[in-house]
Specification:
The chain is of the alpha/beta class. It has a domain at 23-198: Rossmann fold. The protein has helices at 18-30, 42-50, 52-60, 69-76, 87-101, 112-125, 144-154, 167-176, 190-194, 203-208, 211-218, 222-244, and strands at residues 5-8, 11-14, 35-40, 63-66, 104-109, 130-135, 158-162, 183-186. It is globular, with a radius of gyration of 18 Å.
Length: 254
């Protein structure tokens, strides 16, 4: 399946549905083609603007899905109606499909107790799921090579890395230098949600694209970080839309 993309602030964003993203990743796994998936939001773009290595990773990722409502808004300003593809939902569907196809899954990240609870809950929900490797996210840079070697020995098909951006994508880049055939995806705080340590927004907020508002309400410490990013991001995408396509140009729904 060929990629269809649109640029937002210079980065290619895949115009794809959740089910399409699952099919794309599973197709790569079936062919034993390595892949890195990045779930992008305005905060990630802000990190890329200041970190050249992270920017290169984002530019060369095999699939970049619009995780944040800010990204879908940027696309809408260009006349593109694109659904949000939350990384946590994509990872969940990939786990389910890997269970069905008897592919192995590796989990890396979060606190040890969160990781173990996540593992137990996933194994209970998806009977027969093969979690071939798990490691908490509390390790120093000098431990990375050993962890990557251990991961490689288990030959995982899908690797979920919950270290937060940019650390998870930088770690995945190092993994891929040795592990050529796995699908890697950075999943942020997904393990905390699956373990019940963090409450996810109710469905209404998710459907409306307001999950970030709910999370900010539940975690007020996020306010300073988010509101440093959002005004600048919105200003940039409005200017980009005006300069390139004009604003609110009508295109086909993706």
């Amino acid at each position: 399946m060929a990629r269809k993309t649109e640029k937002v602030l210079g980065y290619d964003i895949d115009l794809i549905s959740l089910s399409g993203a699952v099919d794309f990743v599973m197709g790569k796994i079936l062919k034993r083609e390595g892949i890195q998936v990045v779930t992008v939001n305005p905060e990630i773009m802000a990190i890329a603007a200041k970190n050249q290595e992270y920017s290169r990773i984002l530019r060369h990722a095999d699939l970049v899905v619009p995780d944040g409502s800010g990204i879908t808004l940027a696309l809408k300003l260009k006349g593109i109606e694109q659904e949000q593809v939350p990384g946590i939902d994509l990872a969940y569907e990939l786990i389910k499909t890997c269970r069905d196809m008897k592919y192995s899954v590796a989990l890396i990240g979060a606190k040890e107790e969160v990781l173990q609870t996540t593992k137990k809950r996933l194994e209970a929900e998806f009977r027969g799921l093969d979690i071939c490797f798990s490691r908490n996210g509390y390790f120093s840079n000098d431990k990375e090579e050993g962890i990557i070697n251990q991961l490689d020995e288990t030959d995982p098909q899908l690797v979920l890395v919950a270290l937060g951006a940019p650390k998870q994508e930088l770690f995945i880049k190092k993994c891929r230098e040795k592990i050529k055939y796995a699908a890697f995806i950075g999943v942020g705080g997904s393990f905390d949600v699956w373990a019940g340590a963090v409450e996810r927004a109710p469905e209404f907020f998710r459907v409306m694209g307001w999950e970030w508002i709910y999370r900010t309400f539940k975690q007020p410490q996020r306010i300073k970080r988010i509101y440093k990013v959002l005004p600048v991001f919105l200003f940039k995408v409005i200017i980009e839309a005006i300069r390139t396509n004009g604003i609110f140009v009508k295109k086909e729904k993706q």
